[in-house]
Design a protein that fits this description.
Order of helices and strands: EHEEHHEHHHHHEEH
Number of helices: 9
CATH class: Alpha Beta
InterPro entries: DSBA-like_thioredoxin_dom, Thioredoxin-like_sf
Largest sheet: 4 strands, mixed
Protein name: DSBA-like thioredoxin domain protein
Strand order of the largest sheet: 2-1-5-6
Number of strands: 6
Strand content: 5-15%
Structural class: alpha+beta
Helix content: 40-55%
Distance between the termini: 8 Å
GO molecular function, one term: oxidoreductase activity
CATH superfamily: Glutaredoxin
Low-confidence stretches: none
Length: about 220
């Protein structure tokens, strides 16, 4: 077997992050057996909207204010995302009353989940809860329920959310990535030296990882 490290910067309310990871997952499913790969995925925080107040705001209003998107542009963008999602088995549910949230708490729990190697299952559950079920990503009880369903301990998670040190850790980690030149997500860093920005096509991911696999040392 060959260990393959992949670092992913993302935000749970970023639809392109959901698409980008799902494409990667499919490629890894294709290549892991053929190339004897043992993927190690490490998730890192990147808040798109760290200043949003509790309860967030209506997504369409947010897109209009932050990105100056017209109603037509929003519809076209969400239709494109829906179509791309359908190709991957993602059922995006963009509704008129869909909200976007501050995700600091989710990132605190994501950092904690690294200790028990449960980041990826937790991240996928968050994506599904937000984009398919419309769950509030800043609601403590909702986040705790999702975490527990993925095998995390509720009391540990409660302590993480109550500890300002974990909130500071998220901010400090994000600042380090910004200083390293990461300005948008998703961003994937493969084997700590290949940077892929944006939701890359499956063919590109396949070619990149396939070519790299032959250079990796075997585990003994």
């Amino acid at each position: 077997m060959k260990k393959l490290r992949i670092d992913i910067l993302s935000d749970v309310v970023c639809p392109w992050c959901f698409i980008g990871y799902t494409r990667l997952e499919k490629v890894l499913g294709q290549l892991s057996a053929d190339k004897q790969l043992q993927p190690e995925i490490h998730w890192h925080p990147f808040e798109l909207n760290p200043t949003l107040p509790a309860g967030g705001e209506i997504l369409n209003q947010h897109l209009q204010t932050k990105y100056q998107m017209t109603a037509k542009q929003r519809r076209q963008s969400q239709q494109k995302l829906t179509e791309l999602g359908n190709e991957l088995g993602i059922d995006f549910q963009f509704t008129a009353d869909m909200r976007i949230y501050n995700t600091r708490k989710a990132h605190q729990l994501m950092m904690w989940a690294a200790r028990s190697q449960q980041q990826t299952s937790f991240q996928k559950a968050l994506f599904l809860a937000y984009f398919q079920e419309g769950k509030a990503m800043d609601d403590t009880d909702i986040l705790l329920d999702i975490a527990v369903a993925q095998g995390l301990d509720r009391r540990d998670c409660q302590r993480v959310l109550a500890d300002p040190g974990w909130s500071s850790a998220v901010v400090q980690t994000e600042q380090q990535w910004l200083e390293a030149g990461i300005q948008a997500v998703p961003a994937m860093i493969i084997e700590q030296h290949i940077l892929l920005c944006g939701a890359r096509p499956i063919t590109e991911l396949h070619q990149t990882i396939d070519g790299l696999a032959d250079t990796l040392p075997s585990l003994h």
